[in-house]
Design brief:
Radius of gyration: 22 Å
Low-confidence stretches: 5-40, 526-536, 540-544
Helix content: 25-40%
Structural class: alpha/beta
Strand order of the largest sheet: 1-2-3-5-4-6-7-8-9-10
Length: 544
Amino acid sequence: MRISGFPPARRHYTAAALAAAVICSTVFAEPYFAPAGGRPAPAGPVPRLNWRPCSAGSPFDCATATVPLDYADPGGRTIDLAVIKRKATGPGRRIGTLFFNPGGPGGPGTVQMPDRYEFFPREVRERFDIVSWDPRGIGNSTAVRCFDTPEAADVWASGKPAGFPVGEQQRAAWIAAYAELGRLCEKRDPELLRHVSTADTARDLDGLRQAVGEPQLNYLGTSYGSFLGATYANLFPGKVRAMTLDSNIDPRAWTDNGSDIDPALPTFLRMGTDVGAAEVLDRFLTLCGSTTTDRCAFSAGSPKATRDKFDRLMRRLRDRPVGAWTYAKTVADTVNGLYTVHPGWTELAGRLQELWRGRVPGPPPPSTSPVPVPVPYLGEEQAGAVFCSDSPNPQDVEVYHRAEEIAAARAGDAGRFWAWASEPCATWPARPANRYTGPWDRLTSPTVLVVNPLYDPATAYPNAQAMVRELVNARLLTLNGYGHTALGNPSSCVQEYESRYFIDGTLPPAGTVCDQDTAPFPSPGPPGGQDAPAVRPVVPGAVS
């Protein structure tokens, strides 16, 4: 399952596959830094990067890094990593290289970094080369591929419910489809499946750091990239210069405290993602109902009337889908539509209003960002292979229906979506060779900057508070706003603090809260204007 921090309409794969793209294993090996003999894992050779323009006239450069499949066997099989770079734009002012992971798991950096380049703070773009990569198993790197063609993957996907299963028949079809996916993947490349954990990718990242000549790492990780960053910081605590983690995963919840016991709850219920998404959905409907249909097409004139309208629409879709738009597909689309406030919330309101009128919503607008690399195959098995290497989920498929009822009781429709998001892990066949489960409190010399929106539909705010507690030497910067990641939901205030932090190590004062640049459903006006909340929030249990 992807919890990537980028809006679905701008990605080259659909975030509506979110719930279906999670597939997991609960059989774990020793921590990555301590293989069976107890000695440190052998270091692989530093990869060589022969940079070249990604395409004619492109400002982005591309390279391929060759790394060991298994760092415990550096002389054995190798795999390739697709790497991309945009050089610092400030002549004579370059500080170094900033590595970026866009999240996922399964986010292809060679696609998403160019797509999001203009969202990086201007001073960061001026003073750092920005480098990203497709992690092992993903995209243009040596990738997990369980089908001969994309068309074969489409045929497989057409045999399962969209969003999540509703009713006994659909539950059986869902479970059978993902069991089949696991069998197909096991036949193709079982060794690769065992070596795509976050610990493996952290080791790759350290090799890339050395390949560009950096003595220490500068890193920005969003969403799942926060877990990658935390893993790197604890495997290589002396190699961090500056690290910002944006929209965070609680590492203990993700790893189930490192336990080898079959967990009682799926990952996203342990993280509270279902509750966080329900809270953001309620605020979306409240803010929509507080304005006019000129600003929010789904408004029914008041918050209560708009919430009631949404509930009636969901009940109606259960009985009478609109074309392919079933109840579950619409819930999945709604949850994913909350990730990016502008233009995502306005577009989501428009789709809901079309469904209310009994009309099939039109296709999302295409991305206008130039992508200088081939758009790779990004099947569900890629995100799932990584997720299942890290995060334990119940092995008994019958647990998920019970988990759905628990989540629905506390989080409504969004709870049903998130309860099924990791069910494919129950039948995923691979056992990770290397999995890092902590400790998380190894001291880094710089303080890690942790950033999170207060109302995040994928990585709820308590996850950021947990990340700060676990890392020990960390500072929390709160975005008083909505959506998944501060990078994708801009705040000039957050960008200024991030710039100062990356450039000279200056941290925001403890307890700092920044506003979003533009509130949801703003009134027409000059660009950059905002209908900001008049009252600043009281941040519950804030940790510095």
